[in-house]
Amino acid sequence: MTTSDLVGLTVREEVAWLCLNNPPLNILTRQVLDALARALDRLEALPAVRAVVLYGAGERAFSAGADITELAALTPTAAYHFARQGQILCDRLAAQPRPVIAALHGACLGGGAELALACHLRVAAENLRLGLPEVTLGLIPGFGGTQRLPRLVGPGRALALLLTGERLTAAEAHQAGLVQTVVPPADLLPTAEQLARRLAALSRPALRALLTVVRQGWEQPLSRGLLLEAHHFAALAGSPDWTEGLQAFRERRPPRFTAP
Length: 260
Fold this sequence. Notes:
This protein is α/β, with parallel strands linked by helices and about 260 residues long. It contains eleven helices and ten strands. The chain has helices spanning about 30-45, 70, 75-95, 110-120, 145-155, 155-165, 170-175, 190-200, 205-215, 220-235, 240-250, and strands spanning about 5-10, 15-20, 50-55, 60-65, 100-105, 105-110, 120-125, 130, 165-170, 180-185. A six-stranded mixed β-sheet has the order 1-2-3-5-7-10, sandwiched between helices. Helix 1 (about 30-45) links the parallel strand 2 (about 15-20) and strand 3 (about 50-55). Helix 4 (about 110-120) crosses helix 5 (about 145-155).
């Protein structure tokens, strides 16, 4: 397998599919991280893509995290750069201007869980086991887990998971709000595709505005976040999709959004 095979990118009808292709556990080696960076480069050059699904190849795992052998060989300086590499990749997923859906199954641990947490939405197979078990190895998460998990579930619940390394079942992850839907394994990718196509039919400018306001607003005081929301709300006013959406509602028909 060449490095270009380690992360696949295919596009079908405005939905891009990013595949972590390092089975059986889709371990995030340096080569896999490099391949993911290149796949994101290609994705960002495809403006026609309206939604993205990130998933893992094989039946056992979305991704079981970093390569233990590689971790054992890291010096402090190398460990810092490795962490920053993973953080930058997660930031790129979170900053995508179209919704990114993580389709999760099997093991979703460590760096794999951190990739999933960076996505905008998560759907899970019933066999999911999700966790950040780094503390049980004498480590801490390095790809953003200590920052994104508290923002998603609150600091108390996040600390309980981080300090114990607990692995959540799909039902527990759903109860915690970490995944939006739980389905049988055979239905995982069809469910993710259905959600992606539902999102792809919505207004692109409105989706971009929502992703921007939520991402930037949660890092600011409420007063500044509200100003950011008002700015983007006003920027959409009177736009073609704004006009079409309101007209479709009045005419009791599905809207036909066309803005790029």
